[in-house]
Amino acid sequence: MGSAAGILGAGAAFANDQLEKMSQDPKQWVMPAGDYANQRHTKLTQITTENAHKLHPVWTFSTGVLRGHEGGPLVVGDMMYVHTPFPNKVFALDLNNEGRIVWAYEPKQDPNVIPVMCCDTVNRGVAYGEGMIFLHQADTTLVALDAKTGKVAWSVKDDDPAKGATGTSAPLVVKDKVLVGVSGGEFGVQGHMTAYNIKDGSVAWRAYSEGPDDQLLFDPDKTMAMGKPVGKDSSLKTWEGDQWKIGGGATWGWISYDPKLNLIYYGSGNPSTWNPSQRPGDNKWSMTIFARDADTGMAKWVYQMTPHDEWDYDGINEMILADTKVHGKETKALVHFDRNGFAYVLDRTNGELLEANKYDPAVNWATKVDLTTGRPEVVAQYSTDHNGPDHNTKGVCPAALGSKDEQPASYDPQTHMFYVPTNHVCMDYEPYKVTYTAGQPYVGATLSMFPPKGENHLGNFIAYDVNEGKIVWSDHETFSVWSGALTTPTGVAFYGTLDGDLKAVDAKTGKLLYKFKTPSGIIGNVNAFEHNGKEYIAVLSGVGGWAGIGMAAGLTGDTDGLGAVGAYKSLSNYTQLGGVLTVFSVE
Questions:
Q1: Which residues, 6+ apart, have CB-to-CB distance to 375 below 8 Å?
Q2: Which end of the chain has the smaller Cβ count within 10 Å, N or C?
Q3: Burial of 556 (0-12, 13-18, 19+ CB in 10 A)
Q4: Which active-site residues does the annotation give?
Q5: Ranges of residues in the chain whose predicted pLDDT is under 50
Q6: Per residue in 85-119, pLDDT tens?
């Protein structure tokens, strides 16, 4: 028995070591975020502030799919793996042969899953490990594909779309497991994170966002929150009756991992419904950062950012792991730019809250976050719960799509700065009573969105310093910056715009170095790789996502698309639908 366990343990460690080693090779891009720390920083040095103006497209690839293209390609050896929104095609492209399609996978899915996808039919990318590509399909199927042939090795259903659960997130391979979250907070799912065994797709562990301790994988005495044990039934005490069973807390964002601590980190989303008066209490553990043991799923610590969320400020945005100075002290930090407009800095070893500062000056729903209690100090005027259902609470900043949504920031270890794509959007929010029916929207609020008063731009790309807790510079954009960022050691920061520009800016000043108008709006994430000695930058175009839902789904009413359509109406004057990968170099 002992020897078998030893062999299994060694196999798990080997799988992890091999993938971790590959992630440190800058020629490849083997994880959705480039590395386990979610830093989205390349070590390649050919593209610099001096030659960035020479960038130009060298090849393109059409995915043949409309709707929003979030995420980005993987590069493993000489192969590139490109994914699409529904129907969730995956293409394997040969980089030695002008991007020839080696194999293509297109799952057969029931199109009835489309109406239960809240904010476009997006998918945020595939993962690689043990010679396989892992795809989380819209219908929640997790499928393992042979990376060389595209043949299905195994597949497993994560949840039930008939009840409103869908799959939009990128999986993450950690050791001998594939981690995957679930979408469906607008349909009353009970959110969860699940670890599947790479070998055969069997469940290793599943941890829910709300419910009894055994479902949360909490130890009441050892799982910590704000430096204290959570205690028994920490979630149940914050919901009325069985509300937790349809409590939301979906987990469709990014996952990070610290191999030294063996902890995975991710966030949970909004509580269901959007009408706060129907669910009194803190609604734990929605809107929460989780730190869990990668092997067992047991929670080491948790921190809830927006207790009793009244604005749909999902906490799913990426957790960036950085060893950096915070208030002058070297810290094993976890940095999280939340939808609610606050940049949180925690000690990732124990969950201690070190900092929470606004990273958009428009944020007004709370004055500050109390670092002793961890709770935001809410402004009554902007409290949709205080004002009650059927009252239109006006001018709340940020809007429900947050000061940043899932579009990931980048961390540059050279400048010790974070480069953050942001939304600069406010809203009116009117909650109303709603009844839960499985598979039907469970929203309960009408929204409209617009720029902050007196301003006319909907986005900024910012440089943020956690040591000082402040914005260093900010570049205005006409529309929200809904693309993931990339930084280089040579002082260049990349991002894409909703109207379709790939931009390169000087990381120290924000000065524009290069821009190119791609065929469609960019909500994908920029990445870098090297092939045959040359550095390339790659990005997916394909307008859509929540900000582009009007165009993607043909919606026209100002309050359609959960309130986003009105704010982005003029986007169709700048770009059109269509999925295209564009690859750039300076030579």
A1: 307, 369
A2: N
A3: exposed
A4: 312
A5: 1-10
A6: 999 999 999 999 989 999 999 999 999 999 999 89
